[in-house]
Write a structure and sequence with these properties.
Length: 278
């Protein structure tokens, strides 16, 4: 038995394993792992590349360098909230449950009982300070006569000009149908962005410069050639608070919830030591 033990102690492999164990122990003492300190987070290059890949998968293009700090901070926020949730016994490795856990923690941070409802005066001040958000843009009610390039070829624009002349000379001529058009007529007022969705940005920009009350054109769109008549023009306006009270209220409460959530997160974030790879 003694001879066997002596031979074992002289075995080089045993010396190698013992030395490795010693190095591992010293390294653990000098560099405690994240598992030993739940308030220490190291975001490595692999984590950053994962954030970059997820963004590219969602938006179809990689993020720019200017976007990365915010994306990494969002990743850090979710990691901290997951850890805080885990401390409450809500941990899970499932990605869907993890996202729900982050949402639950965001809700808990908001402390909805402490968030006051806005007064009428506060909503009026909010509306004045955020007027551009609620301003209704200029809108038009218009009709058009369509000339199809696929049916008329190079004659489309010439035919449009000839009909414009005819309409101008015959003041009370019936509204001609033109060629069949794929989109139904819309008598409702439409802003420039809405018109651009159906006809293209160049057409929308041109139409909004036309005078009202007479046939104008030809105006080219993404679909062909048109004569256009502006029947009614509604100027841009800022609706009164009474008209959009619910929207203003909801927007103010959303901001207050977010402010409360950010403040709660800042208190938790202060407990963590974070390192981020370049």
């Amino acid at each position: 038995m003694k001879t066997w033990l002596t031979r074992l102690l002289r075995e080089p492999l045993l010396h190698f394993l013992a030395l490795g164990a010693l190095i591992f122990a010293v390294n653990a003492l000098l560099h405690p792992s994240q598992a030993d300190d739940p308030h220490r987070i190291a975001i490595g290059k692999a984590d950053i590349e994962r954030v970059r890949a997820l963004y590219a998968q969602q938006w179809g293009a990689p993020p720019g360098d200017a976007d990365m700090p915010k994306l990494v901070e969002n990743y850090l926020r979710s990691e901290i909230l997951v850890r805080e949730g885990a401390a409450l016994g809500l941990a899970s490795d499932d990605a869907v449950v993890r996202n729900r856990l982050v949402q639950k923690m965001e809700f808990l941070l908001q402390d909805t009982s402490a968030i006051a409802q806005p007064s009428e005066a506060e909503m009026a001040a909010w509306l004045a300070a955020h007027a551009d958000r609620y301003r209704v843009p200029e809108r038009l009610v218009f009709r058009h006569i369509y000339f199809s390039p696929s049916l008329r070829g190079d004659r489309a624009e010439g035919d449009a000009r000839a009909m414009l002349t005819s309409l101008t000379l015959a003041r009370k001529a019936p509204y001609p149908a033109g060629d069949p058009f794929m989109l139904a007529a819309d008598p409702e007022p439409r802003d420039q962005a809405d018109v651009a969705k159906d006809f293209g940005t160049d057409f929308a920009a041109a139409v909004f410069t036309l005078p009202a009350g007479s046939w104008q054109g030809p105006v080219r769109s993404a679909l062909g050639v048109h004569l256009v008549r502006i029947d009614r023009r509604l100027d841009a306006r800022l609706p009164p608070l009474a008209e959009i009270r619910d929207r203003v209220h909801d927007d103010m409460m959303a901001e207050r919830f977010q402010t409360a959530s950010d403040a709660g997160y800042a208190r938790i974030r202060a407990k963590y030591t974070v390192t981020v790879a370049p």
